Amino acid sequence: MSDAVVKPPTILVIDDDTEIRYSLARVLSSHGYQVTEAPSGEQGIATVKAGPHPDLIFLDVRMSGMSGIEALQHIRSVNPKQLVVLMTAFGTAQTAIEAMKYGAFDYVMKPFDPAKVLALAQNALKAHADLRAVGDYKPTINADDYREGIVGSSGVMQDVFKVIGQVTASDVTVMITGESGTGKELVARSIWKHSHRSTKAFIAVNCAAIPDNLIESELFGHEKGSFTGATVQRIGKFELCDKGTIFLDEIGDMALATQTKILRVLQQGEIQRVGGTETIRVDVRILAATNKDLEAMVKAKTFREDLYYRLNVVRIRMPALRERGDDIPQIVDFCLQNLVKQRKTRVSKVSPEAMAVLTRHTWPGNVRELENVVYRSAVIAQGDAILVKDLPIEICEAVGLPVSAVAAPAVPPEAVVPTPVVIPLPAPVAPALTLDSALDFVFAELAAGDGPLLPRLEHEMVVRALAADGGDEAKAAKRLGLTKAVLQKKVKE
Ligand SMILES: Nc1ncnc2c1ncn2[C@@H]1O[C@H](COP(=O)(O)OP(=O)(O)OP(=O)(O)O)[C@@H](O)[C@H]1O
Ligand SMILES: [Mg+2]
Questions:
Q1: What pLDDT, in 10s, does the model give residues 296-354?
Q2: CATH 1.10.10 residue ranges in the chain?
Q3: Interatomic CA distance for residues 405 and 100, integer angstroms
Q4: Relative to the CA of 151, which ligand 1 atom is closest?
Q5: Taking a C-beta distance cutoff of 8 angstroms, is the pair 232, 222 a contact?
Q6: Tens of pLDDT along 224-273?
Q7: Are the C-beta atoms of 320 and 156 separated by less than 8 Å?
Q8: Which of the two ends of the chain, N or C, has the fewest CB atoms closer than 10 A to its terminal CB?
Q9: CATH fold of 166-318, please?
């Protein structure tokens, strides 16, 4: 086993107050950390420069001479990945904001609560170890290969792609149904891009966002003076979109009167501007989408049955994200790569534990919600990878991950750092993780690395068993099915 597993983590305490340095060093060293001290920002920087870099630094904000914030900037320029916790007696918003802005992992208020200081040190070092463990992350896809923006290799998505391919050659009307955020608009755009109308306009109209009294004018235009406020003639979307494709989004929210007029376009290819008498011929392909139950609306007579059949010539049902859990890692990688390209983040990796949480969540808001969570977590992440601690707590709770595992693990630091921390597997929800699928994953992970599989698997099992049993070798040996002597030999190795 490598040196790193047995060496205690090193912590540098930088404070001009001798008493604070002394008490902090005592608390930390009594819990197994190897502590060094520096009485000023200048000396702290010199220590960091001289190396080796400490695993963690506790740095006072207000010191005579160089301020903590200044020292933090210097230290991070020497070692951009340096973990620093700032200490302050003044919990002002400004200190907190500056601390995080300049890359502190966290900050702690004086006077200290030793338990809090220890929990903080543990959390910081755990995050650091997790980041290192992410190592060479291999993204599941290359976003450049997905110009359409639709990612998914699950069977249900392959079926969707096939239908898209089938409907592009003709002008057939397509009804796209599915829960909110499943990608209905994306599919509509894809149909248009592959159709012979791709060089002409694609206009999306959100029927739910336009008040009933304005929708007809929006769609068909109006003549000057046709109603109060109609001071000039207006050309509607259908006329503008001649030879193109119109996407009627949220069509279930369209008023019955407007539905009648849409039916006329579909049957006769004609419109009339509001207040006008002239019949105008339009050549427009209609794609429609809804997350409403149109069949129920037809029964309740709130949606015209004849229009329903006209629109529903081909139906594409977008599967909810929970029906295609296998696609989640690809969508996550796709989102991250796009965010990096747009310079919204530098985070390009996800730890296996965090990915397991994302894959298990049932995503009521579907891909849109997943996108938001990935963005939010990338903004919060402090290294180059999203860790479980960066995910919204609600998501961790929803998959049955105890929040304590996200915030502050209640285990002694020796058991947690620097051995990899095992996040307890959440209660299975669809798609359930079976031992079989977990082993498949482990096999694939190991096979992707270097060297023979079994010794590496054994190493991981030994590390995990020790962590799970709080470092108790007798218990870990029993769990592994080894004698204590054999386990000790393996630990030495
Ligand atoms: N398969 C996918 N791969 C990558 N991104 C996707 C996928 N599906 C949807 N998205 C993204 O998710 C977001 C929501 O997609 P879209 O707007 O098409 O959903 P929608 O079904 O129209 O939602 P709503 O019913 O709320 O209007 C968009 O940002 C889209 O780019
Ligand atoms: Mg939409």
A1: 999 999 999 999 999 999 999 999 999 999 999 999 999 999 999 999 998 999 999 99
A2: 434-493
A3: 22
A4: 3
A5: no
A6: 988 888 889 999 999 999 999 999 999 999 999 999 999 999 999 999 99
A7: no
A8: C
A9: Rossmann fold (3.40.50)
